[in-house]
Amino acid sequence: MPTVKASNTYAEASIRVLKGLEPVKQRPGMYTRTDNPLHIVQEVIDNAADEALAGFGTRIAVTLHADGSVSIDDDGRGIPFGLHPEEGVPVIEIVYTRLHAGGKFDKGAGGAYSFSGGLHGVGVSVTNALAKRLEVTVWREGQVAQLAFAGGDVVDALVVRKAVIGKDSGDKKHGTRVRVWPDAKYFESAELPRHELVHLLRSKAVLMPGVTVTLAVEKTQETTTWKYEKGLRDYLMQQVPADPLIPLFEGEQFATAQETESFAEGEGAAWCVAFTDEGATLRESYVNLIPTVAGGTHESGLKDGLFGAIKGFIELHALCPKGVKLMPDDVFNRASFVLSAKVLDPQFQGQIKERLNSRDALRLVSAYVKPALELWLNQHVEWGKKLAELVIRQAQTRQRAAQKVEKRRGSGVAVLPGKLTDCESRDLLHNEVFLVEGDSAGGSAKMGRNKETQAVLPLRGKVLNTWEVERDRLFANTEIHDIAVAIGVDPHGPNDTPDLSGLRYGKVCILSDADVDGSHIQVLLLTLFFRHFPKLVEAGHIYIARPPLYRIDAPARGKRPAAKLYALDDGELEATLDKLRKEGARDGSWSISRFKGLGEMNAEQLWDTTLNPETRRLLPVSWLGSEGGGFDATAVILTKLMGKGEAAARRELMELHGDAVDVDV
Fold first, then answer.
1. By the number of CB atoms within 10 A of the CB, which of 261, 289, 502, 659 ranks highest?
2. How many degrees, rounded to 5, is the angle at CA 419 between CA 414 and CA 420?
3. What is the rounded distance in angstroms from the CA atom of residue 582 to the CA atom of residue 265?
4. Beta-carbon neighbour count of residue 591 at 10 Å?
5. Is the pLDDT score of 27 beyond 90?
6. Bridge-partner residues for 146, per DSSP?
7. pLDDT averaged over every residue in the chain
8. What is the DSSP letter of 401?
9. Torsion of CA 579, 580, 585, 588, to 10 degrees
10. CB 63 within 8 A of CB 54
């Protein structure tokens, strides 16, 4: 039987345009968690919480029905159901059937939501797309509106009638009820993880003191109710397994209209921190009531503020023994906390919002936590000294562990290169060296770095192409000799077992300009590490730092103060400008600067954008592909790019793909 060759026709008709909610059904994992339906239910709960956060709701009720559906009931304002002025379709229908539509985009004066859980605008439309059926009932302005969907499409058109008191949900006059039947085919398991749902609902009650949150289970007739009057404190005391070493440190502060030069009005944080000498720690953070299970820049701000205040207290009272160097983790490792931040326009990593990426959130939280803790410590000096003892013990334990590693490395260490500005710590978990293009950039990096954990090695000019250089000839090149001596590992091959005990830094970071020359230097250094230090790549020690190409001086707009923003490349620049327009800034009201090189950045700018571990973008370097053939596949590509006898292959590559490359002339 002859084999049938698959059609490889690629023409105009081959391009398929996904409309409406089809993209969600085709690739649900891009929009939500697919292990179970909790996240699509959470999207509805978050909308109810946003109403309470905005001051329009006092009750959220969740019911797990016997037929597998879930309903969420709130007493907020109710979703508008009149016709949209531009679309000519009922607003409630748009909310559930269109991606990137919602009241949270309305950030102008008198907008529907000043603070909410993000601006993806795909929340409940994703819930609808991945549900067999979804029913919505809205009470608003003396009327009741109802409609239903199946697979994201309207099956019961909108019906609006006058509300009858007593008949329509008792005396309810405003609010929204959503009942959803998740479609099991989109999820690995159709079961909602009960403990995660309970944790989510309880956290909403914790973060909104005075709001009543209930969970009812039809099968067992159980109902659980949460209501906290002293939210964070009560919750943390219940959850921390060990007795706190000192009384809880708690507080909250939000920017007022008079402070808007630094932050938008209403931005800020509430926090409660417990320090324990032993046992597990509890760490929970939220942004606009959204749980950020992977942390983010707001947690980094808490860490920065706690460390700054405690270190200042220790220095003020001369409590630190000679030779002990304090680091942020010495404070943070024994801290349990609940942190609730309010950020005007939060930027999350991914649609499920597990990590906050907003760079300004670090400064926001730190600016409020640090002075509050400084005041608290100086009002309670004895408690402060007890906390200082804990932190110093943590630092001494860490340093002893690092010293043991040093002793195993033995003697006979080569003399370090003179232009290396080394760091003070010897802890591989924290140490990093930046290989910096040019002396001027090296100067900014030296001034802007964290002296405790960050070293800087400036490189002069472009490093030698080492793809075809024999290993015993490498050290004839001064730059390569200095790199090898600085990192403490000898050149080796992919099948060698080099001695990595002399490695001096956990991260070796390539830091070059964000232009074509910088990219060339990156490739030359990556070639060096791949060819002659492959075990460092394999062990995950090599990184590429990504400095911005543009700085945007943005004007004040709406609740947002004037600010300096940074963009990695042209695409990010356009996205930033588009965001400014949506926030009310007019074209031309901003100014754009293009960094010709790292040397144009001052120390503070370089720290904020490229060196600060909490806000920078650092890319780990690894082989192509995740399987065993990754090394060989990478070698093939680098041979084509860097081999001297590969000119014809490179020419063919450029002829085939040259039109897909942006050239910076």
1. 289
2. 60
3. 18
4. 10
5. no
6. 137, 159
7. 83
8. H
9. -120
10. no
Highest mean pLDDT (candidates 27-31, 391-395, 575-579): 391-395
pLDDT average, residue stretch 280-308? 91
SS3 519: helix
Which residue in 576, 587, 580 sits closest to 557, CA to CA? 580
Residue with tokens 């013990």: 393
Q: Going by C-beta distance under 8 Å and a sequence separation of 6 or more, which residues neighbour residue 23? A: 30, 31, 99
- Within 8 A by CB and 6+ apart from 132, the residues are 150, 151, 181, 182, 183
Provide the token pair at 164: 């009858």
Pairing of strands 563-567, 591-594: unpaired
- Is residue 524 a contact partner of residue 464, using CB atoms and an 8 Å limit? yes
CA-nearest of 521, 518, 542, 531 to 643 is: 531
For range 169-196, the mean pLDDT:
86
What residues contact 636, with CB distance under 8 A and at least 6 apart?
A: none
Pairing label, strands 542-545, 563-567: unpaired
pLDDT in tens, 55-71: 889 999 999 999 999 99
Q: Which residues are catalytic?
A: 437, 513, 515, 517
DSSP 296: B
Burial of 604 (0-12, 13-18, 19+ CB in 10 A): exposed
What distance lies between CA 429 and its chain's CA centroid? 21
Alpha helices in 9-53 (DSSP H): 22-26, 38-53
pLDDT band at 665 (very low <50, low <70, confident <90, very high): very low
- DSSP 8-state code for residue 109: T
How, if at all, do strands 432-437 and 507-511 pair?
parallel
Find, among 96, 94, 80, the residue nearest to 139 by Cα: 80
* Element of type H or E holding 132: strand 131-140
Please report, as a single letter, which amino acid is at residue 12.
Answer: E
What is the DSSP track for 576-619?
HHHHHHHTTPPTTSSEEEE-SSGGGS-HHHHIIIII-TTT--EE
Q: Which residue from 170, 144, 180 is spatially nearest to 159, judged by alpha carbons?
A: 144
Tokens of 560: 């947002």
- The amino acid occupying position 243 is D
Residue 520 forms beta bridges with which residues?
Answer: none
- Global pTM? 0.70
SS3 201: helix
Is the CB of residue 123 less than 8 Å from the CB of residue 109?
no
Rounded CA-CA distance 606/445 in Å is 7
